[in-house]
Design goal:
single chain; 416 residues; mainly alpha; four-stranded mixed beta sheet; 4% strand; globular
Length: 416
């Protein structure tokens, strides 16, 4: 152990303590407001639905708490507890090259962590989601999804890891710059390919067949000057009762996707308003801004990793006795989330600002009242709490709390 061990444990304790304190505040705030629907929603959301949302929020908080505790234990075990060293020694028994050995080490650690976290995932799906009427996943479907995710992770992750480790070993002192460029190119490629190559492996995507709704959406797209490869309805109801809509893809491979549950829950003008909100993210350049932010942060991260690989105290401080490119990369991926926790409220605030701007765009392109109605239905049908703790939501929420967002939309209607 060295001074870096002290700073790592201090950051871990601070991160854990802040998250635990915020979760307790959130729980207490939701409980305190459980028996009364907030005034702006008293005409649209019943007390029963409001209480269901409160209970669902509390149940999810318990899962989050257990997951945080388990994640902290696993992090300490694999770092200071010598877990990485143990896995490293296991793979040293085989006659593997340094790159293959490194890929095996990294994938093994993440596989073991996922294995330990699997019971919580099963509990959340088949107990919590089931209790509140959202789960539609069968055990067989769950196993199929898990197997497919594992295969894809190996098929995509292993070659990428091998390439990064090769660059670390062969590209000199500025390897981190080349590795960053490779990762950015890979991310853009995956964003472009995801709609047509990966997403259909998990879900069925049918072209929107409601001609009236399709014509309404086409008119909206023309008003916004937006072009896509099509409008699709995804069979989200096969796994969950939650509804959503999103854009996916880049360049000429963009798709508009509605969950079938959303199409069933909303009226045509409400679906148009939800789509207008999503279009707002593109028209206000939020996607590009987030890509640039991600690129800058990852560049800083790779530069930091490039320096840390040359520091013996980095390995020693995190419990690794045999420094290597693979252990450096693995330690960085495990330890950085501890320190980046403190950036979370800044990123959340930026994302909430983007949500307000997208709402303003939607209000200028369609009926703002329809968007308000759609949001209220989404809060109700997804059992999203209307009364989050202000500090918790400021730290965690990428979308503004319901009451604040509805009030902002009301002001947008008045100025439109």
């Amino acid at each position: 152990m060295n001074i870096f061990t002290f700073f790592f444990l201090l950051a871990l304790a601070a991160s854990f303590g802040i998250e635990f304190w915020l979760a307790r505040r959130h729980r207490d705030h939701v409980l305190a407001h459980r028996n009364q629907v907030p005034e702006p929603f008293q005409d649209t959301i019943s007390l029963e639905a409001h209480q269901k949302a409160a209970d669902y929020t509390l149940a999810k908080l318990k899962i989050i708490d257990f997951n945080r505790i388990l994640g902290t234990i696993l992090l300490l075990f694999f770092t200071l507890g010598g877990g990485i060293d143990a896995v490293d020694r296991f793979w040293s028994r085989f006659d593997l090259g340094p790159i293959t050995h490194g890929v095996a080490l990294i994938l093994s650690v993440f596989f073991l962590m996922a294995l330990f976290e699997l019971p919580l995932q099963i509990y959340q799906t088949f107990v919590v989601e089931e209790r509140f009427g959202f789960n539609r996943t069968t055990p067989l479907q769950f196993i199929k999804d898990l197997a497919l995710q594992t295969v894809l992770s190996l098929a995509i992750g292993a070659p990428l890891l091998a390439l990064v480790l090769w660059v670390m070993d062969s590209a000199g002192d500025l390897w981190w710059l080349l590795a960053w460029a490779i990762l950015m190119a890979f991310s853009l490629l995956m964003s472009w390919a995801y709609p047509t190559l990966i997403a259909p492996l998990f879900n069925k995507f049918d072209p929107l067949d409601d001609q009236t709704l399709k014509e309404r959406i086409q008119r909206l797209l023309q008003r916004c000057g937006f072009h896509s490869k099509g409008i699709f309805v995804m069979d989200g109801s096969r796994r969950s009762g939650h509804g959503n809509a999103y854009f996916t893809g880049l360049g000429n491979n963009k798709r508009i996707v509605f969950f079938d549950t959303l199409v069933e829950a909303l009226e045509p003008e409400e679906l148009e308003a939800v789509l207008a909100h999503e279009l707002g993210h593109y028209k206000r350049k939020h996607v590009i801004k987030m890509l640039i932010t991600s690129a800058v942060l990852s560049l800083i991260g790779f530069a930091l990793l490039g320096w840390l690989t040359q520091q013996p105290w980095f390995y020693e401080g995190l419990g690794v006795s045999r420094p290597s490119n693979a252990t450096a990369l693995l330690l960085f991926m495990l330890a950085m989330p501890v320190f980046s926790t403190f950036l979370q409220p800044i990123m959340a605030a930026i994302q909430r600002k983007y949500e307000f701007e997208a709402d303003e765009f939607a209000a200028s392109m369609c009926d703002a009242n329809a968007l308000t109605r759609a949001l209220v239905k989404l809060y109700r049908d997804n059992a999203a709490t209307l009364t989050p703790d202000p500090l918790y939501s400021a730290f965690h929420y990428s979308h503004p709390p319901a009451a604040i967002r509805i009030e902002h939309l009301k002001q947008a209607r008045q100025t439109a």
